Amino acid sequence: MTTTSAEAEAPAADGLPSVPHWIAGAVTAGSGERSGEVYDPALGVVTKRVAFAEQADIDAAVAAASAAYPAWRDLSLARRQSIMFRFRELLDARKGELAEIITSEHGKVLSDALGEITRGQEVVEFATGLAHHLKGEFSEQVSTGVDVYSIRQPLGVVGIISPFNFPAMVPMWFFPIAIAAGNTVILKPSEKDPSAAIWIGRLLQEAGLPDGVFNVLHGDKTAVDGLLTHPDVRSISFVGSTPIAQYIYETAAKHGKRVQALGGAKNHMLVLPDADLDLVADSAVNAGFGSAGERCMAISVVVAVEPVADELVAKVRERMAGLRTGDGRRSCDMGPLVTKQHRDKVASYIDIAIADGAEVVVDGRDVQPDGDPNGFWLGPTLIDRVSTSSRVYSEEIFGPVLAIVRVSSYEEGVALINSGAFGNGTAIFTNDGGAARRFQHEVEVGMIGVNVPIPVPVATFSFGGWRQSLFGDTKAHGAEGVKFFTQQKAVTARWLDPSHGGVDLGFPQN
Ligand code: NAD
């Protein structure tokens, strides 16, 4: 299957550049004939093709990661960390290049692309200090002359499967910790925006990472299933939609793997009557329409405790009038949606809202974008008086559509949040510390903001939701990330002592 770099990146038959796999420190076109189209969503045209892995490519990636594992595992922790330090410095210096790649395939505006890289970089920084987190435990003299201690060791080859909406940050939630802990990695990025992963592979190599420690396999269900079922892949870290997360969890677990599978979301912002409505309106607009709503921590429902809704809707609408939707390279506020199909699906919820009797305050279909007319545009959309029986309320839309639900009390708002399928993020806006404290205690959601609309925890904490937003019991990064990518040994040791007790078939009684 060996291909030269030039062959792997040669234009496909239709003249489009192709995005190759990255296996054992080199690009490869792979063994298969199948490929996917990569769009520039702001132009609405196919700009590249991405190779789709077949079984031979999956086997080659796993073989490369397996071959690299023993030497990488046995390299000193100090040396592994120093490579993370170099990677951090290179990434920081050159993140503008990566942001441009992200914007050209995802569509998000450049400043937002830089923001996602910065959040991923935090995890790289965490991994530079992994020695602290890998420290074991030690208990002296648990029995006469006997000590017990624990050791954390890597798993081996680990798989990461990531979604389109954060092509740099989500892989960086996982691989810095996995690699610094001594594992070798196969990343299967989204086929919609695959190039960021290859750029990262090259940068890791430049930072001194040995070949085969980080590999990228592109593709669809074939590539994913290949990783889920391969006997030499020890764990799977997945981020994506809930139905696929559940499938990943069940299939990987059935094949004996450790799994963390983060799913979809429908995040509510609860607004109490005493809140600062200017802060709320700014926050709702930022969290609802940033990245065109294609964020798992986007706010998609504002739950307004009356009597604030009329005033709040007016303030949100006023701010929306100032938003510029357009090409992410033109200093706009919001870019296009990722594909035409996704744009049309998101827009269809506006018709559903009308049919269900909601009030469309701002209709994003009327947007005049600052960009190519063929781009996948949908402007910020505000829908008031959304019924909780409407699909606009219950389903994850994953676009720039903000719903307002009016309730009469704090209790009604919390009951609503706790009754949904998802439990990723939520926020309360209030000036009442007691109410905020009660909310954090009562709400059944994994990440909570108090006057903070997108409460993504910093890298020293762990990221993950509850209920159908996370399958498995381990969140991403922070202490839970270290636990996920290591397995523990407990050693019970006694050094020769003349007082040992001779033969005794019973459990020791100290
Ligand atoms: P997706 O589930 O369609 O795809 C995610 C990954 O799974 C991709 O790599 C894709 O190639 C693969 N995949 C898709 N269909 C598959 C199938 N049938 N079998 C095997 N693999 C398959 O998700 P997406 O559209 O790329 O991303 C958006 C979704 O991700 C949203 O639901 C969003 O909420 C969620 N998300 C969640 C978090 C979180 O932390 N909980 C973070 C980011 C995104």
TrEMBL record:
Keyword check for NAD: yes
A GO MF term: methylmalonate-semialdehyde dehydrogenase (acylating, NAD) activity
SUPFAM superfamilies with a match to the protein in the record: ALDH-like
Ranges where the Aldehyde dehydrogenase domain occurs: 32-491
Gene Ontology process terms (BP): L-valine catabolic process; thymine catabolic process
Keywords, in A-Z order: NAD, Oxidoreductase
TM helices/strands, residue ranges: none
Gene3D superfamilies hit by this protein: Aldehyde Dehydrogenase, Chain A, domain 1 (3.40.605.10), Aldehyde Dehydrogenase, Chain A, domain 2 (3.40.309.10)
EC number: 1.2.1.27
PANTHER family named in the record: MALONATE-SEMIALDEHYDE DEHYDROGENASE (PTHR43866:SF4)
Name the UniProt record assigns to this protein: methylmalonate-semialdehyde dehydrogenase (CoA acylating)
Gene source species: Diaminobutyricimonas aerilata
